[in-house]
Amino acid sequence: MNLIVNGTLSYVVDGERFTFLPRTLLWFFPKQEHQIVAQSPDAQFYVAAFKYSLIERSCRAVFYDDLKRKSYDGRGILHTILKPEIANLLQKMMGTVMDGSLDPDLLNREAGFGQASDFIFEHKDPDALNAGLHFLLLLCWRYQCASGESASPVPVNRVVLRALKFLNEGGREWSLGELAKASGASKSSLSRVFHRQIGVPLSRYRNSLRLSHFLEEYRGAEQKNITEAAFAAGFGSYAQFYKVFQETYQCGPREALARDVTKIQK
Fold it and tell me: Which domain does 56 fall in, by range?
């Protein structure tokens, strides 16, 4: 379940792009593959991931049966646009549920490095966390069922879908020429269509994936230093890596990593 608080987010689902505005509540089911492909610089959003065991314990009435589905039968993404007062209420609830967890800035940086990261933390009050998630799940589903919205999808060009597939498979560093050839387009055409359909330049999207790989390399078993991890993640130089990191997280990598270690130790 995602709640967009500020800015805009774009997802690709089943070959179509959907863009959502603030106050949008979105739902994703276990078998529903989705990917955030673009977000505005001011984007802020909450993500709550529920274990199936919690859903079964929490949702016993027939009204909640659809929450137990493994996939979404409709087109696109199940969502609703909340009234301002309801969106503010849910935002405050989510903040309260996270009281006692790590600093939001740290959690947001870790989330930016991707789901493959081995980052983990233990909440100081797991009983309160689980109780809060239980109530949050039921309340949000009631708001979802009370109203429905339909987003306008943008079909994604096959060339762009191929490029996304190659980039997200990992395992190799694609040059623009290699990626264009494998996707069935010229370099200029791929760059132009990718930017128009995904909402961000191809280079920016690729750098976001490199940042995701950076922390995996930095915290991996081989214990690479920052420079080694940056090159292993596909950056061409430390200067390029530093610039991308600074633009994304508003501080340098050494500062960010040192701050994270301090917070984790506390």
Answer: 2-146
